[in-house]
Structure formats: C-alpha cells, structure tokens
Amino acid sequence: MNPKALLSALDPRVRQRLLNLARILVTVGLLALVIWQIKPDELLARVRTIRLSLYALALLLSCAGILVRAYRWLILLRAVGARVSFRRAVYLYFVGAFFNTFLPTGFGGDVVRVLEIGEGATSQQAAGTVLIDRLTGFIMLFVLALVALPFAINLIPPVLVWVIAALAGGVVLGSVLLFEGRLLRLLTARFPRALSLAGDAWIGKTYAVITACGARAVTGALFWSLIFNVIQITANVLTAEALGVRVSPWLFFLFVPVATIALLLPSISGFGVREGIYILLFGQVGVNETQAVALSLGAYSIDFAAGVLGGVIYLGAGVLRLRSKQGAEARPNPATEK
To answer: Do 258 and 112 form a contact (C-beta atoms < 8 A)?
Structure first.
C-alpha cells in the first residue's frame, strides 16, 4: 500500500493528528534553521528601539482592514440572498482572525466563519462566499504585484521578476476559470457525485453559490480587496519604518503576495515558513537575515494583535451569551436550490 492510500485509510481523527504533527515538525525545523542564521542580540536590540507611534498606526490600519474585509464579505453574502448584518460580519471576521492566529492553519478562521454564520445564511452560501472572499483578496494582491513590477524591476534579480509574474498570472487565470464555472463543471462532470462541481451534493451547491454571486458583486469585492491590500501593505511599510529597516515600499507590493502564498504550506501560524521566505526575498535586496526576521515578526505581530482582539470579542460574546447564531432565515436562492 502506498503512503497516500495508507493515509486515506486512516481514521479521520488519526489523520488530523498526523497532519498537525507534520505542521509542528515543519514549524520547529524551519524556526531552528532561522534562529541558527540570525543574531538574537541584534534582533532584540532592533525590537527595543521600535518607534511606537508608527507601530500603533500599523495596528490601527490592521484593524481597519478587518472592517473592510467584513464589508467585502457582506457584499457577496447579500448577492446570494443571505441575510447577515454588517455587525455580524465584523464579529465573525474578528473571531476568524483569532482562530487563524491560534490554530495550526491559516484558514481555521474561515471554517469558523462558515460554522458560526447563523440562521441568516446556509452553510453553502457561507462556504461559497468565504472562498470568493479569500480569492478576491489573492487576485488583487497579485494584480498590485503586477502593477508594482515596472517600478521595482531594477530592485530585484530578473529571475525573481519572472517568478512573481508567473505566480500572479497563475492566480489570476485560475480565478477566472473558477468564476467562469462552465469549464470546471465540464471537467468534473464524470467525478463521483460527492466531488462533482456539476452535481447536487454539498460541493456542487457550494460551487453554485460561487458562480451565482454575479459580476457586480465580484467586482465590488475586488474593489474592496484593492482597498484592503493597500491598507495591509501600508501597515507592513509602517512596521518596517518603525523597526528601522528602510527598503523601497515597492518591494512590499512584490514580496507580501509571495509570502502569503507560502503560508499555504503546513505550519503553525506560518512560523518558520514566513521567516524563511522573508530571509530569501529581502536577502535579494541587501537586507540581512536578522532584519528580515524582524520584518517578518513585525508583520505577524500586527495580525496577532487583531487575533487577540478577536479572542477578547469572542470571549466577551460567550460571557454575555451573545454568541448565539444571529440573523433571520436566509431567503431562498434559485441558484443553490433544486
């Protein structure tokens, strides 16, 4: 029996434990490699001299970014007939930030948003719109990278230019195929019912939500993704300035998308993976390993702060018994019902 078949035959709980163990091993191994490369004393000295005013502004921008993303998600939810309030969307986004920060995966918060959506939307509506919500963020992140390339083409090696351009093109093309729908439905038509995007099983109904959002809602989500990503990159630039690491702001438009894709690799909150990517990328422009790790930890810290705030909100909602599923019943959506 090959390893893939053996993994499939395992009990789901055992399989999940093995995956979590793999994430832990990857994280510990990469962190050990990073620590071996840096100078801890220099890193601590840089952190101690951080300019708190700039760092506080980066934190505020990070929280503002969550409000923008919550509104982006709300546009998609309403496009498929879900009845969820902006307040509820903001709450779920902050809670999602908490679980993304403290679970051994960068997408645990998305699962929580689906599970906690409430009576105002079906699970298919929640899952489909969460996926589009994520994708529009990725698309605009890489569109910004393509826009920034001409301004930074002389700052990075040619091979890195081609890698970033290829990644951006792949993300945009894949997203177009996903939203178009017909080709993917055709390709999966002969799959088992549970896996076919053209079927009436859960995955098929969820995909129907994705393609039912409509051009207007997707365009609106892309616009707010543009706003969010500019906010996110500005927060990263401010964090670098606060830490005294001065590099061209254009580099963040190129490197943040690559680091975001890298976080799809198995790890705990991206530790080890993110630091390694920052060392690799910023090392191409003369930033030493210690400075690159400081940039990485600074970027993580603003997300961590938002996650902690989400945890406080989640705890407060539990104590005050406000964590019940809110909202009215979802309106029937012809695109997702047979």
So the answer is: no
Please report the DSSP string for 107-125 in residue order: THHHHHHHHT--TTS-HHH
| Cβ count near 123 (within 10 Å) | 14
Give every CB contact of residue 41 below 8 A, 6+ residues apart in sequence: none
Quick: pLDDT tens for 295-330.
Answer: 988 888 898 888 889 888 888 877 665 555 444 444
Check residues 102 and 155 and name the one with the higher pLDDT.
Answer: 155
Question: How far apart, in whole angstroms, are the C-alpha atoms of residue 64 and residue 124?
Answer: 28
CA atoms within 13 A on the CB side of 254: 26
pLDDT(271) > 50: yes
Structure tokens at 327: 């909202």
Report the length, in residues, of the chain: 338
Longest dimension (CA), the chain: 63
Buried b (16+ CB within 10 A) or exposed e, 28-37: eebbeebeeb
**pLDDT tens-digit series, residues 110-138:** 888 988 888 888 888 898 899 899 889 98
- Tokens standing for residue 248: 């061209």
Mean pLDDT in residue range 216-240:
94
CB of 61 within 8 A of CB of 299?
no
Measured in degrees and rounded to the nearest 5, phi and psi for residue 332 equal -60, 140
- Which stretches does DSSP call E strand in 74-117? none
CB atoms within 10 A of CB 93: 24
DSSP state, residue 38: S
DSSP 8-state secondary structure symbol assigned to residue 325: P
Angle at 45 between CA 44 and CA 49, to 5 degrees: 115
Q: How many CA atoms lie within 13 A of 98 on its CB side?
A: 16
| Domain ranges across the chain | 42-319
